[in-house]
Design a protein that fits this description.
Number of strands: 0
Largest sheet: none
């Protein structure tokens, strides 16, 4: 589970609630079921107009990716590609068929099979790049829905406030209620802005980050598979793949590679990075 997503939402809402109470407010001041229905229901309805029903119904499944996510195994994938490069140089590309196991990353398996089948490198790149672009397009729907909701909800909040002010203007003959009605009128705006900035935008950003992580891993796989097909030296493949990583992670890869090289020199020891 991604604790950052859960804790972020809890800390955000708790901070706003604590701030409101410390400023002298009471919880009942900020609770209005009609305002919530108007803002949330109106936002959802406006968003449904913008997307297909299938995309909207798929939103709960997409949302779970913001809370439950296994980080891509970038280092493990890089080591596998380096091992593939080593074996392909020693035993030929056909030997890689024995490296694929059931349950493997489908994208990596597809790339390796294309190479083993002797597919032209330009075609391999085109096929894998198309897969990446289609994946990003699918992911953009989820983050786009939340981004759209973040755009609509403040406006629906303002509409709710205007409706409340109109109702208040119809009851000016009772000045004793004006203060309460004026305060209640702004609750809809509060809901709209709070939902946009404490729910919809953060979820959209988190889903975008998830998509970028997966796209980066697939880009690494694409370059690794093409380097293997070109028969490049495993050390050169490793250097090429490390270029995708941030400096801090590159150093970690370098340390792990050194450990693997040391283990490879030990008699009778087989390692992932041996070459």
């Amino acid at each position: 589970m991604d604790l950052a997503t859960l804790l972020g939402l809890v800390v955000g809402w708790a901070s706003v609630g604590a701030g409101a109470i410390l400023k002298g407010g009471k919880p009942e001041y900020y609770i209005s079921i009609p305002a919530f229905i108007l803002v949330f229901g109106g936002t959802l309805g406006a968003t449904m107009v913008s997307y297909s029903l299938k995309q909207i119904l798929d939103l709960p499944r997409v949302t779970l990716r913001a809370f439950f996510h296994r980080p891509p195994d970038v280092l493990g994938t890089m080591n596998r590609l380096i091992r593939f490069a080593d074996r392909a140089r020693r035993e030929g590309l056909l030997s890689l068929e024995g490296e694929l196991r059931e349950g493997d990353d489908p994208f990596l398996a597809k790339g390796v099979r294309l190479v083993v089948d002797g597919t032209d490198s330009a075609v391999v790149r085109e096929i894998l790049q198309t897969e990446i672009e289609l994946m990003e397009e699918r992911h953009r729907v989820g983050e786009g829905i939340y981004s759209t909701m973040a755009g609509f909800s403040p406006t629906l909040g303002i509409i709710g406030t205007v409706i409340s002010l109109i109702n208040m203007m119809q009851q000016l003959d009772d000045p004793s209620k004006l203060g309460h009605m004026l305060a209640a009128a702004f609750i809809a705006t509060l809901y709209g802005v709070a939902l946009a900035n404490l729910v919809f935008l953060p979820l959209s950003n988190k889903l975008r980050a998830r998509s970028q992580e997966e796209a980066l891993l697939r880009q690494i796989v694409t370059e690794g598979v093409l380097a293997i097909q070109a028969g490049e030296n495993p050390r050169l493949v490793e250097e090429k793949l490390r270029a995708f990583l941030p400096p801090a992670l590159r150093a970690k890869v370098g340390r792990e590679a050194a450990v693997q090289e040391g283990a490879a020199r030990a008699p009778g020891t087989a390692t992932v990075g041996a070459r």
